[in-house]
Specification:
heterodimer, A: 389 residues, alpha/beta, Rossmann fold, 2 domains, 7-stranded mixed β-sheet, B: 369 residues, mainly alpha, two-stranded antiparallel sheet
Chain lengths: 389, 369
Amino acid sequence: MKKAITLVLMAALMLSLAACSSGGDGKAEAVTKDNLKVGVVHIMDLGDQGYTYNHDQGAKKMIAELGLREDQYIPKFNINDTDVAATNAAINELVNEGCQIIFATSFSYGTQVVEAAKAQPGVVFCHATGSDAHFNDLTNLHNYFAKIHQARYLAGIAAGLKTENNHLGYVAAFPYAEVISGYTAFFLGAKSVNPDVYMDVMYADTWGDALKEREIAEALLNRGCDVISQHSDSVSPALAAEAAGKWHVGYNNDMAPAAPNASLISARIDWGIYMTYAVKALLEGQTISVDWGEGLETGAAYLSPLNTAIAAPGTQEAIDAAAARIISGDLKIFSGALKDASGNPAVITNWDGSEVLFTFENENSVFLESDEISAPAFNAIIDGINIVS
Amino acid sequence: MSATKVAARAHEPFVRIIKKDTISRGRAYMIRALALLASLVAGALLLLALGHNPLPVYRDMVIGAFGSAFVTKETVRIAIPLLIAGLGVALAFKMRFWNIGAEGQILMGAVCATYFALYQYQTLPQALLLIVMALAAMAGGAIWGLIPALFKARWNTNETLFTLMFNYIALECVRFLQYGPWIDPKQRGFPKIAMFEPAARLPKVFDVHIGWIVAVVLVALVYLYLTKSKQGYEITVVGESIPTARYAGMSVSRVFLRTMVISGALCGLTGYLVVAGANYTLSESTAGGVGFTAITVAWLSNLNPIVMVIVAVFIAMLQRGSNTIQTTFKIPLAAADVLTGLILFFMLGCEFFLNYALVIRDGKEKPNE
């Protein structure tokens, strides 16, 4: 009898929740500064002291610059970007809470953001580091990134001048253009001041997993790398370098406070510039560009202060000189007769290598990275970079 | 009390653990309620240490799980795979076969279903496609469960290690497909499997995918199977004592094999519901720990399928609640995990006090009740 009652109760529970479904559809209301709600889907939380922390700083800057209330920024933290259901749930919750604009910060949210943009034409979606907006006709879908390869090139100068054995290392997330573009820029920056450098790259197959990032950092340090850098979300590679008495070049956040004896400099993105731009455009009824990617010239990509206590002498001057040339347009990062490991001209291909998009034939070859599409496209593995598997 | 007994007691440890004979239903519920209360108090201390007032945090956890139709549907969505996989492992546990390979069985089920979703969606009408996907998933899970059972029946291998290791093989299979043969060209090189076409997606009933109906039906079926059928009785006997089962003329290895096929098939079906009902794609996190949480679901319910419904919803509530407080109170993920872990720890830990009593030396001897 008791069991029958339980069964009936369970059925009642399931039906009752199903019955009171739907709601949150009729949103014809105009967006005002007062009713605006900005949702952000974050891959980790502030504890990563890296990517998510930095993106959260951007959102807070946007709130401050536009004079919004703090509760108008609704973050969803720790939304695993490989967990499709969790991603969908987070986006749907933000829509349900009445957000008129939603930022999704990780590349792998892409497919879900596209689906959501189709299902919710009244909501503006901005997806960082993705490239779907360019390939879709959705007017409410936008991509944004920064020309971080410029900042990475400059940070590479600090590494190239500091290294004692010319052996650099790089904790890389995925064998994917965004990551390859980043580490190649870092390597070319180092090489511009130290032609003898070579670099080991190891993949983590995740954007962010503090333990795994640290393991890989330690493996690189054990291989003899004396300056390592990273394209991964947390501060743990810097901590590994600190513990090993070696040096590190950071990403996202200024990693010097966490690793004062290791962190030379960090390549950073000021997400606040874009978030302010996009939200302001929404409030003023302006169009938000399909792709957005600014660089050093506006400060969207920038460097943390150089850790002068440990950096090699002359580093700041070398960085400043290169930065001026990048901003003036004299220096293009991916240019010249770049070679692959077998000495052939390096080529940029489409994703599966079936089609060559660009060849670095001679000294005059220039590939404009993140120009039309904000997501990076440089995916050549050049000579001097060794992928360790 | 005789002199020898007193002398003996002097050498006793300060606290002795004794087995309780039986325990009344009311008392059992009381112990469980006390455990829940104790867990909330322990959690409150953690929250206070983090600088939060515990009451609003707890309130938001419940609101985050049941506060609106929208979040309730999310809670149910999380509960569905926990419940079905819980049913699956409970069948194995009932015969004392430690199937901790649900995670792998879920993944292999999902892999088999995904094959048809990606490559056969044009060749079959939707209803048939969805049925074929379900059958393929059950077959995939069943095979992944059957292999350890075969080894156990034939060579008496350790099924705990065997099923555990099979999880990793399944995960690597998914990774292989994701990074290689099944990579989605639209991702331009990023290792991800394509989203299923609409034809390969399960319909929704009351705005939650149809898996919840499957779950409710399976709860009833597994309950009847365990309590009313001959095969269910065999499972219980094998679980209680293998020699007894042999003496009664049961083929123990056949019970092992048969039950693990069912157990694996249920887990495989879970994988199907996750990919076709919720995620619409296969990824490394398709199982996402469900196979391990299902073990908690099974034991917290004492392997009772009906109770499992409540426990699965409860654990789903904790997950949703933990998600909510990360957003509303900015409580870090790790702390939220500790909080839910504390609650589950107390709930599982109290099972000890249902079966054993602590006797303190020199205290008055407690009469057994």
